[in-house]
């Protein structure tokens, strides 16, 4: 009996402690009600409650959560049915409002997202819907923000995962896309051929210009070289003539210094000629002007006149 009482006491103590001490993990928060009325929030860490009087109504996860919205079939402005998949990222920022503002805020977020999506898509044509995912996501997020603000929930982001048009529309779009790609390929090929011709013509033009400039430069250099050669040759000839004249001048000065005037030189020259004329087989022909010149030398002229008569 005593052991039973002890066991009951232990159980009561354990239950009391369990109801009194609450440990809340990080990024979670609890809503405490005292006698059925909101009392306070349980923050992460150790919390003490009054057993039986205080109760934890619910716990909220403060991390960013995601809610998948089931695929919705909506009609565009041009009466085309499309199926849209979306996903919503949200975060609880007001635990008290999230507890008492709405019974199920996730369900509410999904419903508002669906209704807003139908309104937005109904104002857009199919092409605008397919190309306007970012606009659709932004419009849904703004509509959810206005509705969920009083629920203590903040919508972080709305993503349109997929937009599926009907099968026949998809086939028509595929054909259109193929035709557009073929058209772009043909245009690109024509543009490439045009660029090729332009580049080739430009290259040929540049080649001819460079060749003409090269020929011109070569002729200029050749003429310049010829001119310099002629100048150097003329300069060399002038210097040679000058050197010869200078040498002749020096020779004459030396002869004059040695006393060899013209008459002495003429006399010695005709002496040598007279020796040559003495040979039996030698004949010396003198021009008349030369003989007259020799006449000025007196007896020498007579000698040569005799030689002329007796020849």
UniProtKB/TrEMBL annotation:
Chain segments annotated as transmembrane: 6-24
InterPro entries linked to this entry: Band7/mec-2_domain, Band_7, Band_7/SPFH_dom_sf, Stomatin_HflK_fam
Cellular component GO terms held in the UniProt record: plasma membrane; side of membrane
Keywords from the named record: Membrane, Transmembrane, Transmembrane helix
Band domain segment(s): 19-177
SUPFAM superfamilies in the record: Band 7/SPFH domain
Assigned protein family: Belongs to the band 7/mec-2 family.
Protein name, entry field: Peptidase
Lineage: Bacteria, Bacillati, Bacillota, Bacilli, Bacillales
